[in-house]
Design brief:
There is one protein chain. The chain is an alpha+beta fold and 141 residues long. The chain has two domains: 39 residues, N-terminal domain of TfIIb (Single Sheet); 98 residues, 2-Layer Sandwich (GMP Synthetase, Chain A, domain 3). A three-stranded antiparallel β-sheet has the order 1-2-3, with no helix packed on it. The N and C termini lie far apart (45 Å). 16% of the residues are buried.
């Protein structure tokens, strides 16, 4: 079982405490009474997706003996116009850097994460259309 706790600080600021002992400040913008002191809760969902899928992809690429030296993910999401403003489309873009990288193995790692291993992606995919792509940055020897 996974547990966490969220405590109100003041205005619209909250501190989230994970079961593993880490904390993060969340806040809203001034338009909703916040002071812009932390990440937005829905941004946290996207950050969680990015972290979850990145762990999968890096792990799979290491196991397939790819010489990766970097993995960055950018995520763009569209939300519904009306309340509840759920995510409707999410695009996950991987930027993988290294030497002699095999695009077939990277595509396979991204696909395995998206369809089999990434719990966050699979959960969010029940509400939003999620697409993935990648680019390779080949580093000099």
């Amino acid at each position: 079982m996974m547990k966490c706790r969220v405590k109100w600080l003041n205005h619209m600021s909250f501190v989230g405490e994970s079961g593993s002992g880490h904390s993060i400040v969340m806040d809203s913008g001034p338009d909703t009474g916040g002071r812009d002191l932390g990440v937005r809760p829905l941004e946290m969902l996207l950050l969680g997706l990015g972290g979850c899928t990145s762990i999968d992809v890096v792990s799979i690429l290491h196991k397939s003996r790819q010489q990766i030296s970097g993995c960055e993910v950018t995520i763009e999401a569209e939300r519904a116009a009306n309340v509840p403003r759920v995510f409707t489309k999410i695009h996950v873009h991987f930027i993988v850097s290294g030497r002699e990288l095999n695009p077939v193995k990277i595509a396979r790692a991204v696909d395995l994460s998206a369809t089999k291993y990434c719990s966050a992606s699979i959960m969010l995919g029940k509400a939003a259309e999620i697409t993935h792509d990648f680019e390779i940055v080949e580093l000099d020897h």
